[in-house]
Design a protein that fits this description.
This protein is of the alpha/beta class. Helix content is about 35%, strand content about 15%. It has eight helices and eight strands; from the N terminus they run H-E-H-E-H-H-E-H-E-H-E-E-H-E-H-E. The strands form two sheets. Strands 1, 2, 3, 6, 7 and 8 form a six-stranded parallel beta sheet that branches. The chain has a two-stranded parallel ribbon with strand order 4-5. Strand 4, helix 6 and strand 5 form a beta-alpha-beta unit. Helix 2 packs parallel to helix 8 and helix 7 runs parallel beside helix 8. The radius of gyration is 16 Å and the shape is globular. The model has no long low-confidence stretch (mean pLDDT about 95).
Length: about 210
């Protein structure tokens, strides 16, 4: 993951600038939406699935096509366990470094492996010129709260607080099932879930529909 300056809590002006991108979901109940980017991976996804099963928490996995191609069995287990899936490009590409055609081609290739109308751009660096085309087929999902589990400069306690101090009803929370960050993710996740449950929050997967 490219470590750059990032906002833990998305600034309010972003959703105003890009109203057709999903930043959080409307919810009258205290509901949260856990998401995991970059997988599936043997090293992390199975362990996350175990935590979610134990806690009875559904989530959404934004998968890269390459990882689904390699780990189709884990991808199937995500679906079998009642979670949602979404497209996170084929090769985890940065939309600011690709032209519109290259970007759309990569997303389309991933869609051969990930049958979902949800799309999340890696690094939240969306190719803006590609957005109108993407919106014809996809709900483009980003986030409201970024855990920072990918930030090696953070103690796990800070990752936990990044989430629990910033959530609101309807928040989309981002973690990763990327083996590079597994220690941070797997240590923080159970504590985040337990704390938020105690505060009265429930969890849901982001609803998706099939593209084909």
């Amino acid at each position: 993951h490219e470590l750059m300056r990032y906002w833990v809590k998305t600034p309010r002006f972003f959703p105003i600038l890009f109203p057709n991108i999903v930043w959080k979901l409307a919810s009258k109940q205290p509901k949260l939406y856990l998401t995991f980017d970059d997988g599936p991976t043997e090293e992390v996804t199975y362990k996350i699935l175990s935590i979610l099963k134990r806690e009875k928490v559904p989530a959404t996995f934004f998968c890269t096509g390459n990882n689904v191609k390699i780990h189709s069995d884990i991808y199937q287990k995500i679906l079998n366990n009642g979670h949602s899936v979404g497209n996170h490009t084929m090769n985890h590409i940065n939309g600011w470094k690709k032209n519109k055609g290259e970007y759309l081609k990569d997303v389309k290739e991933a869609s051969q492996y990930i049958n979902s109308n949800l799309f999340s751009p890696p690094y939240a660096k969306l190719n803006i010129l590609a957005l109108p085309s993407l919106l014809k087929s996809y709900k483009v999902v980003v986030w409201d709260v970024l855990s920072g589990d990918f930030d090696f400069t953070l103690e796990v306690n800070q990752v936990i607080h990044n989430v629990i101090d910033n959530v609101q009803s309807g928040s989309i929370l981002v973690f990763h099932d990327n083996k590079k960050y597994k220690n941070s993710t797997l240590t923080a996740l159970p504590k985040v879930i337990t704390t938020l449950k105690k505060r009265g929050f429930g969890f849901e997967a982001i609803p998706f529909s099939l593209l084909w």
